[in-house]
Specification:
Layout (H helix, E strand, L loop, with lengths): L8 E2 L14 E7 L6 H10 L5 E4 L1 H6 L1 H9 L3 E4 L12 H20 L10 E2 L8 H9 L3 E3 L3 E2 L8 H15 L2 E6 L3 H16 L3 E2 L1 E4 L10 E4 L1
Parallel strand pairs: 1-6, 2-3, 2-8, 2-9, 3-4, 5-6, 7-8
Antiparallel strand pairs: 10-11
Helix pairs in contact: 1-7, 3-4, 6-7
Bound molecules: zinc ion (ZN).
Zinc ion binds next to loops.
Length: 227
């Protein structure tokens, strides 16, 4: 169990601490959806019976509410990733906060039909990992856990699924564990996912699903690591 009060931020890319994973344990996270390729990722995850966290962008979530609800219906966790994926460190504090809250509201409206800036799952990731101290303070006060990442597939670059598979498995062999960042809107990532999940299974990795300990909106986020 991870307490938001002591570890409000996780992911070694940006922060000094991460989730307390064991060797050969990974957390799968997907940013920037929902997108046309998201169903392909969902099918790959379902075929291997593993669960992930999707950090959604509010604007596409607004127009694809059925897909957002499908993500949750299939057991995955929905975190938040702003409304239009701006560089928050280049906005005023108020504008950045508005972009965060509009994203949360759009995701919540897609999920539950009601726009609220109190997230039902208090997980957030900054676009481009560009946090600011003031925004981190605000999120911490609201009990919203900020996710960075421990490793990533660099899948924002053009590459084939085969290249991406080699890159992420080579990196994972070095770290042995961690929060992995993917982007489900990219075709090469969606196309690679079945082979990657098979590789995890065949190499004795366990996919850990991270959920808030108490999903009640008014309670500070306390993510629990569950199988
Ligand atoms: Zn992003």
């Amino acid at each position: 169990m991870v307490d938001a009060k002591t570890t409000p931020r996780v992911g070694l890319k940006s922060f000094p601490q991460t989730l307390p994973l064991q060797d050969h344990e990974v957390v799968l996270t997907f940013d920037d959806g929902p997108a046309a390729t998201t169903p392909k990722v969902l099918e790959a995850l379902a075929n291997e019976c593993v669960l992930a966290t999707f950090f959604l962008v509010g604007k596409p979530a607004s127009s694809q509410a059925a897909l957002v609800r499908r993500i949750v219906a299939e057991g995955h966790t929905v975190g938040h990733h702003t409304y239009t994926h701006k560089h928050l460190n280049q906005l005023s504090y108020q504008d950045a906060l508005a972009e965060i809250d509009r994203g949360i509201a759009a995701d919540e409206k897609a999920l539950h039909g009601e726009a609220t800036d109190v997230p039902s799952t208090p997980f957030f990731r900054f676009p481009y990992f560009e946090s600011t101290p003031a925004l981190l303070d605000d999120l911490q006060k609201r009990g919203i856990v900020v996710f960075g990442a421990d490793l990533w597939a660099s899948d924002w670059l053009p590459m084939t699924p085969e290249q991406e598979l080699k890159l992420i498995t080579d990196r994972l062999k070095v770290t042995g564990r961690g929060i992995i960042l993917f982007h489900d809107p990219h075709h090469h990532t969606a196309n690679m996912m079945p082979a990657f999940l098979k590789w995890l299974r065949e190499n004795n990795y366990r996919v850990v699903h991270v959920v808030p300990a108490n999903p009640e909106p008014t309670v500070a986020g306390t993510p629990t690591v569950v199988q």
